[in-house]
Amino acid sequence: MAAMSVHGFSYWDLLLRNAAVNADLPVVSGAFGIWSHAQLKVRAEALAQQLHAKGVAKGDRIAVLASNQPEVLQLLGACSRLGATLVLLNTRAHAQEIGALLEDAEPALVFAEASLGSLLAQAPEAVVCHELDTLASMDLSEVSLTATQTLPPPEANAPLVAIPTAAINGRPRLALLSDSTLLHQALQLAYVWSLGPADRHLCVLPLFHMAGLGLTLAGQLAGGASILMPRFDAEAAAREMAFSRVTYFASFSPMLEAILDAAAHGHDLGSLRVVTGLEPSEVVDRLHASWPQAQFWSGYGQTETGGMVSLSPSRDLPGSAGRPLPLVQLRIQAADGRTAAPGQSGDILVRGPCVFSGYWHRLAETAHAARDGWHHTGDRGRIDERGFLWFEGRAPEKALIKSGGENIYPAEVEQALEAHPAVMRAVVIGVPDKRWGEAVRAICELHPGQTASAEELIDFVGNRIARFKRPREVRFEPHLPRREDGSLDREAVAQAHRAD
Amino acid sequence: MAAMSVHGFSYWDLLLRNAAVNADLPVVSGAFGIWSHAQLKVRAEALAQQLHAKGVAKGDRIAVLASNQPEVLQLLGACSRLGATLVLLNTRAHAQEIGALLEDAEPALVFAEASLGSLLAQAPEAVVCHELDTLASMDLSEVSLTATQTLPPPEANAPLVAIPTAAINGRPRLALLSDSTLLHQALQLAYVWSLGPADRHLCVLPLFHMAGLGLTLAGQLAGGASILMPRFDAEAAAREMAFSRVTYFASFSPMLEAILDAAAHGHDLGSLRVVTGLEPSEVVDRLHASWPQAQFWSGYGQTETGGMVSLSPSRDLPGSAGRPLPLVQLRIQAADGRTAAPGQSGDILVRGPCVFSGYWHRLAETAHAARDGWHHTGDRGRIDERGFLWFEGRAPEKALIKSGGENIYPAEVEQALEAHPAVMRAVVIGVPDKRWGEAVRAICELHPGQTASAEELIDFVGNRIARFKRPREVRFEPHLPRREDGSLDREAVAQAHRAD
Predict the structure, then answer these.
(1) B250 located within any domain
(2) Residue A59 lies in a domain
(3) Closest by Cα among B337, B350, B254 to B303
(4) CA B82, A376, B3: angle at the middle one, nearest 5?
């Protein structure tokens, strides 16, 4: 029996530690009532034993399709104990996407909330589904100390969760994050926010997003509690914050504004210390004016970096994305591959224990993202003289075009164009469009001596990929701009062609 | 050129991060003045380049023999950048011990404070020594950006420091600690004490001990500063605390009492928030009575666990050694190998990123300490129902006997006794002795049918190892008590034979 390394510390270890140190304090609260740290540990252990009895073993995947429910944490604890990976499915996805993800992930089991069963309509036939609700009524008398000791030991560096994340070629990818990565991030958040056992987190963001999961784990590591909201409701959130003396939460626009509106009807948010997320500056200003004891923290992060990697009070430098967390190395890489000077724009690179383990089933993409010992975020930004990060958006080659509510990945359209014998290189960008939000524009460089009309190329693309992805317009350039290393300078193309 | 893993974060990374984020804030202060975070980074980089030019490469050792001087941090940064290991020699050791350690460590270079040169009298001839003072006057104009880029990348999991630690067979061992271990511990301390850029650490303990080094790194990680005292002086310490508004420090008895005495002559210690270390409860009470804003934190740790692994305000439960840090798993192992029940005594085991990398040149001892996926501290204790650790001293087989100012390792004496043909097993313990502090007492089980007198065995030992290690008294037992696994129950022997 291979033992865990002396250096490992798993999510399961956190449950054990909290069961000893913060035993009777609350850890998670929801419609079912409140679980203490000790109860969560017992529930996770009982579940691990039952899953083990069903044949779930190290390296297996278990998928969960649920709104914010405490059973997600129970599953997380059981997976950590068994060395299995919990695939966190997005309840807002389409049945087709969920089917594709399940086909890719090949989970041993799927736990789904009963009301979300229709989203499993296109799941592969082999997938075994259980109702999540069965976990709540689990018989805990069946926990056997002996049974746990016969389980293989947990591993801190195995993938604990798989989270669907944005793809560059239109297919969602599963980002794998280890116990170690998640707990490092939890400790860094607990440190910057001085979280402790008295802290209360209102989890309005889904647990299948890093922001919701990350803030929940940070509170748990600190011995604090998270109140899980299955779905966002501003009035209910404001009431809960006042009632439970919530101290911190994360929000994506337009949540915070709606909560402030609701609170204006008599809910006291005076217990709030920390608010973070992505919110416009006017709303942040309003928060600070209405509840001056609350501090809004601006940051930058993505699923692949285990959530936020830079974070500062937005009052320190409004508009910036904050400064790196203690164990985070940020680097801006200029077009020539060197580290950019302060204030100079470039690609945002990240290194540290926060970086994810890779993409499930995608070795080449994993290696590419981790090239040269740095995680390449695909985002652009700059770092100023004082170490603050300024986010400048997705890198042009990773841009996502949103047209008529559909996601269009430029790379897919470019590949289709470059399949035409006359086209040497193509750059596809999104341009503002009154009706569709954005429209697809292609800029092509043809092979020397070749010709092709815009209409011909638009038809060519429409016959190869979904018609809504066809360029609305095709332009030609004799020579697309290159960087020093010979790669296309997409930013220059986009800047030249975005406006008119 | 193999790049650092995307998950790595080295001490050198911390210097880089702080040079960007906390550039002009002080990081270290001493007789020479104050260095900012940016200056420390430049000095470490310049030194790395010069050492590289002298041929120092990844995996090499560099030794330093110095009182608390800022150049130790400069060397640490340079070693991290180069992937070299800094051997922190104890200035209180004898020339013979230092000679033996240098022979074992085979450092490429030794940097020594001029006044400590005599301690190098027995260094191997091949060792190249430099005066530490030369680093202070280093020409920083020689820092070359290009030169740094040609250096191999740093590694977070390589051994960054080697610290002499207690041995069980009389020979000091070098404990290796990686960047990763040291920075994890720094983050955990920064978290529990909410350290930030405004914090000031008075380093009265030597940097060649984990306590002095660990608290210095914790402050540095938080963007704070350490004031280094080359040697302890209570009056100077109290004055410095008042003058520099010191917020935290660690102390070993009798330092704290002397500082409180000195402060009574008019030094204001009102800025102190955190005091930790090993101090008797009366002195802790006096600290709390005199300076109620200061909190004494009791803990447990050792070099091999990167310093403290449990830590709580002593007011929470006086006499205990606190509760585990967030990423620390503590386990008490009962004599039968199982996890002890709450309140039951046993061996203290530790797991987590805080655990050291191993002993230099001692693979077998390293593997033994890390058996079953746990670091075996060699200490005894218990964990109560609330998760507090209670320290009960060194395990009997690892006890150190202090007699007449000399260290005597029971294992060495036991080996000598068991070399006698009549002796099957021997247990050696220390017993109180008015004149020598402790005296050596041996309890022997003879082979069936064999005989030997106490006098004969004492002479036998005296002819094999140093005479001061001879037992003062030898007792005989027909059957020494065993544990279930067949191993000697040294604790039972010690309890039965310690008193009279």
Answers:
(1) no
(2) yes
(3) B350
(4) 25
Chain B touched by A7 (CB under 8 Å): yes
User: Does residue A402 have a pLDDT over 80?
Assistant: no
Say yes or no: B138 and B61 in one domain: yes
Q: What value does the mean pLDDT take over residues B464-483?
A: 87
Asked if pLDDT for residue A286 goes beyond 60, the answer is yes
* Position A342, amino acid: P
Q: Which of B394, B422, B451 is the last residue of a domain?
A: B394
B196 close contact with A: CB closer than 8 A: no
CATH number for the domain that contains residue B320: 2.30.38.10
Report chain B residues whose CB lies below 8 A from the CB of A326: 14, 17, 187, 190, 221-222
Asked whether residue B17 falls in the same domain as residue B120, the answer is: yes
**Are B151 and B204 part of one and the same domain?**
yes
Residues B430 and B377 in one domain: no
Question: What do you get for the CA distance between the two ends of chain A, in Å?
Answer: 66
Of B7, B9, B383, which is closest to A20 when you measure between CB atoms? Answer: B383
> Does B1 score more than 50 pLDDT?
no
- Give the DSSP per-residue string, A141-204: GG--HHHHHHSPPP-TTSEEEEEEE--SSSS-EEEEEEHHHHHHHHHHHHHHTT--TT-EEEE-
Phi, psi of A11 (to 5 degrees): -60, -35
User: Closest partner residue to A351 among B9, B23, B326, by Cβ?
Assistant: B9
d(C-alpha B416, C-alpha B399), whole Å: 17
- Is residue A39 domain-shared with residue A139, that is, in the same domain? yes
In this structure, the answer to whether residues A331 and A437 fall within a common structural domain is: no
B384 touches chain A (CB under 8 A): no
- Domain coverage including residue A481: 397-498
Between B9, B23, B386, which is nearest A352 by CB? B9
Beta strands in A360-496 (DSSP E): 375-383, 389-394, 401-403, 406-408, 423-433, 437-446, 473-476
Does one domain contain both A16 and A120? Answer: yes
Q: Inter-chain contact A375–B4, Cβ cutoff 8 Å? A: no
Q: How many angstroms separate the Cα of A483 from the Cα of each of A148, A468, A487?
A: 57, 31, 5
Residue A411 pLDDT grade (very low, low, confident, very high; cuts 50, 70, 90): confident
Domain assignment present for residue B278? The answer is no
Q: What is the CATH number of the domain that holds B68?
A: 3.40.50.12780
B-chain residue closest to A13, CA distance: B329
pLDDT score, position A151: 81
pLDDT for the residue A166: 66
Same structural domain, B204 and B318: no
Q: Considering only residues 130 to 159 of chain A, which have any Cβ-Cβ distance to chain B shorter than 8 Å?
A: 153
Q: Does A183 lie at the interface with B, CB-CB under 8 angstroms?
A: yes
Q: How many domains does chain B have?
A: 3
Q: Pick from A181, A208, A231: which residue ends a domain? A: A231
How confident is the model at residue B254, as a pLDDT?
A: 86
Q: B5-38, pLDDT tens digit by residue?
A: 899 999 999 999 999 999 999 999 987 789 999 9
How confident is the model over A468-475, as a mean pLDDT?
Answer: 91
- Residue-level pLDDT at B170: 52
Q: Which residues of B touch A16 (CB under 8 A)?
A: 329
Q: For the residues A402-431, what does the mean pLDDT come to?
A: 84
Structure tokens at A234: 């501003």
Whether A273 is in a domain gets the answer no
